[in-house]
Amino acid sequence: MKVKPLTDRILVKLEKSETKSAGGIIIPDTAQEKTQIGLVVEVGDDKEVIKVKAGQKVMYDKYAGTQVKVGGEDHLIVKMSDILAVIE
Q1: Chain-centre distance for alpha carbon 16
Q2: Of the candidates 5, 3, 9, 88, which has an alpha carbon nearest to the alpha carbon of residue 49?
Q3: Is pLDDT above 90 for 45?
Q4: What is the C-alpha to C-alpha distance for residues 85 and 61, in angstroms, rounded to an integer?
Q5: Element (H, E) at 59
Q6: CA–CA distance, 66 with 60 (Å, rounded to integer)
Q7: Reading across the β-sheet that carries 83-87, which strands appear in turn?
Q8: CA atoms within 13 Å, Cβ hemisphere of 64
Q9: Contact in structure between 41 and 9 (CB atoms under 8 Å)
Q10: Is residue 1 within 8 Å of residue 70, measured between CB atoms?
Q11: Structure confidence by residue, pLDDT tens digits, 3-40
Q12: Cα atoms in the 13 Å half-sphere on the side-chain side of 86
């Protein structure tokens, strides 16, 4: 299944959070904090509003977007206004 966001929306692949603490303790999935960093997979067609490109790593608002599964992996569809920064 291929997902193409519309207008000012962006499809972001969620980055996995750390499963071990700095001290070596394994953190279960239920206790892990939701990550706010992801990789841009697809962008909508509003080129005037969208300032990111596919392949860029971005930081987004903690409670933004709609979570979807694409190819068995977690993704998020967010508005451009929910993108906080590009990580280089």
Answers
A1: 10
A2: 9
A3: yes
A4: 10
A5: strand 57-60
A6: 12
A7: 66-70, 73-79, 9-14, 37-43, 57-60, 83-87
A8: 23
A9: no
A10: yes
A11: 999 999 999 999 876 666 778 777 776 666 666 899 99
A12: 10
What rounded mean pLDDT belongs to the chain?
88
Token couple for 53: 């490109």
C-alpha triplet 16, 20, 24: angle, nearest 5°: 165
The alpha carbon of residue 62 and the mean position of all alpha carbons in its chain are separated, in whole angstroms, by 10
> Is-above-0.85 flag for pTM?
no
The CA radius of gyration of the chain, in Å to the nearest whole number, is 14
Q: Which two tokens stand for residue 85?
A: 């920064």
How far apart are alpha carbons 24 and 41 in whole angstroms?
32
Tokens, residue 3: 């997902």
Q: What is the pLDDT of residue 69?
A: 92
pLDDT over 70 percentage in the chain: 84
